[in-house]
Amino acid sequence: MYDLGMSLSHALLGLLAVEPRSGYELTKAFAGDLGRYAWQAGHTSIYPELARLAERGLVAVTGEGARGSRTYSVTPEGYAELRSWVLSPPSRGKVRNEEVLRMFLLSALDPADALVVLRRIVEHAAEEGARLRKLVDDAPAAIPAGSAGFGYLAAEFGARQFEAVHGWAQWAIEKLEAAAAEPA
Amino acid sequence: MYDLGMSLSHALLGLLAVEPRSGYELTKAFAGDLGRYAWQAGHTSIYPELARLAERGLVAVTGEGARGSRTYSVTPEGYAELRSWVLSPPSRGKVRNEEVLRMFLLSALDPADALVVLRRIVEHAAEEGARLRKLVDDAPAAIPAGSAGFGYLAAEFGARQFEAVHGWAQWAIEKLEAAAAEPA
DNA sequence: AATCGACATGTCAATACTGTCATGTCAGTT
DNA sequence: AACTGACATGACAGTATTGACATGTCGATT
After folding, report:
1. A43 with A95: CB under 8 angstroms?
2. CA atoms of B34 and A105, how far apart (whole Å)
3. Do the Cβ atoms of B132 and B158 come closer than 8 Å?
4. A46: which of A10, B25, B37, B160 is 20 to 30 A away, CA to CA?
């Protein structure tokens, strides 16, 4: 009677709801922004989880391709499960983010060390923010709701997050430099 | 020869670097914003990890209190390890965030369902943003670098993140409503 | 025809983590 | 003196995840 590891299964349902895919293609999706910012998983977790979802009837193999590939699609039950999960109250989701942890721990360091990290964050956030902003701009202006639009909302989300991180790091640098200038 | 589970150990080193604490107090720290936004862990992970850190000489018991409590402090080696971790290049840290995953999966849903979720996000982000903004405002204006200031940078970070989420969700609602108004 | 790289899936042992149960202490109340 | 709730740590079984290894296919070069 397990129903843990819920997040991975729902991530898979979500991806398959947008478009049927093989395990390999799902793995590639996790190697991109989805895995980088929302939920990471390797193929060794994905394949067994797909098998479990198929066993529960939430997905089904709807095609076979070259090199033994199997294309999975969500079943109506799978879509219902996904919907109920996304709509369900947030309560307290699992959170693990090494980058954010680093930011939390910044205060534990020497201000000089913290500044080094902050300057790197400023640079990195500017790059990632610009990349995602470009992604959004290049995407079609209207949201073709439901199909190809997957990732458009997410890209805008990411762009804004990085813009916020960028502003924060600059603010933090100013604060630390000001504190260093006038010793107590 | 393991050196995995790095993040938890560094979170502990960071907390102890700010101030010596017992396992119980560390557990409470994880029950707060640290656990909610950066890295979650329960006492059943924390105690064994503390023992391992002590074995490796990165922390040490520097006091014993009532009810069998042991107060841990970082050793110089522990601080060096922490410093090198925070300063080390980001490469690709572990990321797991159920809330962000939900946002990624929004596009997989009916626009009507997505709107429900987005409106809840607007509300929640406004609340959390306001709470953290208040936390920052109530904190001392200058950063007493190194000691009591822990959490000040982090609180501002969180406040800005939620402000960004708030803006994003409002933007997304407008987009979806506009798309619904003019059917293709 | 051999080679190579991307495609595609899988096993397995080791490690990590969660939830549940268990145990005991101490301070303040009743 | 019994009770209660917060303090404080720990064991353990079940589940999840990772990293290393393994296997084979197909298309395009060489």
Report:
1. no
2. 10
3. yes
4. B37
CB-based contact A97 B96, cutoff 8 Å: yes
How is residue B58 annotated by DSSP? S
Quote the tokens at residue A95.
Answer: 């959170």
Q: Is the CB of A63 under 7 A from strand C?
A: no
Using a CB-CB cut-off of 8 Å, the residues of chain A touching B153 are 103, 106-107, 172, 175
Provide, as residue numbers in chain B, all residues whose Cβ is less than 8 Å from the Cβ of A13.
108
With an 8 Å Cβ cutoff, are A160 and B167 in contact? yes
Beta bridge partners of A74: A59
pTM for this model (two decimals): 0.90
State how far residue A36 is from chain B, nearest Cα, in angstroms. 6
What SS3 state is found at A151? coil
Q: Does the CB of B94 fall within 7 Å of any strand C atom? A: no
Q: Hey, are the CB atoms on A154 and B103 less than 8 Å from each other?
A: yes
Amino acid at B21: R
d(CA B158, CA A119) in angstroms, rounded, equals 19
Q: Reduced to 3 states, what is the DSSP secondary structure of residue B139? A: coil
Q: Is the CB of A72 inside 8 Å of chain B's CB atoms?
A: no
B156/A172 CB distance under 8 A: yes
**pLDDT digits (tens), chain B, 184 positions:** 445 568 999 999 999 999 999 999 999 999 999 999 999 999 999 999 999 999 999 999 999 998 999 999 999 999 999 999 999 876 778 899 999 999 999 989 999 999 999 999 999 999 999 999 988 888 765 444 433 445 788 999 999 999 999 999 999 999 999 888 876 5
DSSP-derived secondary structure for A10-76: HHHHHHHHHS-EEHHHHHHHHHTHIIIIIB---HHHHHHHHHHHHHTTSEEEEEE-GGG-EEEEE-H
CA torsion angle for A169, A117, B82, A159 (degrees, to 10)?
50
**CA–C1' distance B24–C30 (Å)?**
29
